[in-house]
């Protein structure tokens, strides 16, 4: 696969994210944003397009035409009273009266709808889907500490027992700190009583290719952080999982990347679209992935599972069900992809890219 992409210098630079290795300009969170990229056609999966045009094929269980990788980052479980008040005011200002109505009863209660893992699992199950939940595993003194992972042991084990994946949501500095990465991974594994396969970093903080190297060394099966915080689409031109190529070492890495295409905050807040425009963009990306028989990764935070944003998520599930998509979590896709992923034309032996 890499030999084919190398034939076009621009596509190769896009696929390897060469500009991110060369440039040091970042946003306030240390991320490389879309508005700094020279590759402007972010909604066109140019690298995947080249592969498919040259005869590469991919397949999914039971002949499903494409896959939707459903994921949830668990950033918070509780929120303080001032934040709840702000969310009510913002919802009323935006005309989202349903969301405001859900928040108002929480003013007298510590518990909030973000403690909704069972409800999310039941909703997805009703559409024949399942997903991945990525939990923070931080200590009280850590930056961005929001909850004790020990308090969620019952919910985490419930998700795992029912077939949903539990992965690690790396803390603010985890993407560039190997010791913190291993400590958080072991912390979550102790609660879960099993190995953790999947990773996504908090705030989508990521450093190419360094973060991939750290994840590979820590024994993760896959990552699903590679997406823009300020625009939906295909950051490196791929709408399929892939093994990253390390420009520093000149080798293909073992960790699999399932690139992130759509995040709720990006689509519904940062891009400043109304709900109809947001769905038009969502449907356009879904259609593109379906045409390329690809995988689209969707990140929907647990606190977005109320009001208008919940209805939007249901539309994604409805679209996938009606189109016969394989809707599942990252671990299942990564395991399948390693055995049955992109195959060259006429290759009788399946294998990952």
Describe this structure in words.
This protein is of the alpha/beta class. The protein has one domain: Glycoside hydrolase/deacetylase (TIM Barrel), CATH 3.20.20. It is 40% helix and 12% strand. The protein has 14 helices and 11 strands. It has helices spanning 2-6, 9-16, 18-22, 46-53, 81-93, 97-103, 117-126, 153-161, 178-192, 210-218, 264-270, 275-291, 307-322, 330-340, and strands at 67-74, 132-135, 165-170, 198-201, 222-223, 245-246, 251-252, 256-257, 260-263, 295-299, 326-328. Strands 1, 2, 3, 4, 5, 8, 9, 10 and 11 form a 9-stranded parallel β-sheet that branches. It has a two-stranded antiparallel ribbon with strand order 6-7. Strand 6 and strand 7 (251-252) form a beta hairpin. The termini are close together.
Q: How do the strands and helices of this protein lay out in sequence?
A:
Layout: H1 2-6, H2 9-16, H3 18-22, H4 46-53, E1 67-74, H5 81-93, H6 97-103, H7 117-126, E2 132-135, H8 153-161, E3 165-170, H9 178-192, E4 198-201, H10 210-218, E5 222-223, E6 245-246, E7 251-252, E8 256-257, E9 260-263, H11 264-270, H12 275-291, E10 295-299, H13 307-322, E11 326-328, H14 330-340
Parallel strand pairs: 1-2, 1-10, 1-11, 2-3, 3-4, 4-5, 5-8, 9-10
Antiparallel strand pairs: 6-7
Helix pairs in contact: 5-6
């Amino acid at each position: 696969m890499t030999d084919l992409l190398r034939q076009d210098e621009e596509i190769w630079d896009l696929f390897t994210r060469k500009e991110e290795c060369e440039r040091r300009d970042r946003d306030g969170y240390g991320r490389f944003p879309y508005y700094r990229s020279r590759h402007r056609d972010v909604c066109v999966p140019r690298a995947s397009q080249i592969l498919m045009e040259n005869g590469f094929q991919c397949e999914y269980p039971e002949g499903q035409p494409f896959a939707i990788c459903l994921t949830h980052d668990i950033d918070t479980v509780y929120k303080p009273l001032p934040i709840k008040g702000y969310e009510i005011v913002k919802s009323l200002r935006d005309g989202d009266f349903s969301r405001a109505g859900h928040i108002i009863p929480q003013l007298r209660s510590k518990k909030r709808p973000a403690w909704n893992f069972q409800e999310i699992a039941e909703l997805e199950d009703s559409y024949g889907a399942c997903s991945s939940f990525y939990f923070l595993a931080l200590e009280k003194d850590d930056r961005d500490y929001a909850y004790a992972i020990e308090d969620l042991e019952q919910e985490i084990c419930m998700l795992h027992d029912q077939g949903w994946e539990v992965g690690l949501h790396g803390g603010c500095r985890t993407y560039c700190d190997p010791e913190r990465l291993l400590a958080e991974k072991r912390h979550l594994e102790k609660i879960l009583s099993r190995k953790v396969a999947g990773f996504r970093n908090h705030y989508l903080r990521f450093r190419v290719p360094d973060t991939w190297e750290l994840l590979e060394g820590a024994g993760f099966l896959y990552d699903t952080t590679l997406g823009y915080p300020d625009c939906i689409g295909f950051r490196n031109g791929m709408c399929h999982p892939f093994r990253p190529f390390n420009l520093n070492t000149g080798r293909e890495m073992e960790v699999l990347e399932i690139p992130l295409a759509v995040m709720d905050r990006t689509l519904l807040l940062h891009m400043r679209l109304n709900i109809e425009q947001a769905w038009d963009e969502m449907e356009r990306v879904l259609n593109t992935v379906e045409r390329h028989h690809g995988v689209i990764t969707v990140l929907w935070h647990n606190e977005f599972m109320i009001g208008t944003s919940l209805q939007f998520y249901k539309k994604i599930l409805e679209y996938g069900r009606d189109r016969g998509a394989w809707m599942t979590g990252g671990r299942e896709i990564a395991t399948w992809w390693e055995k049955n992923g992109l195959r060259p034309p006429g290759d009788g032996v399946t294998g990952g890219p």
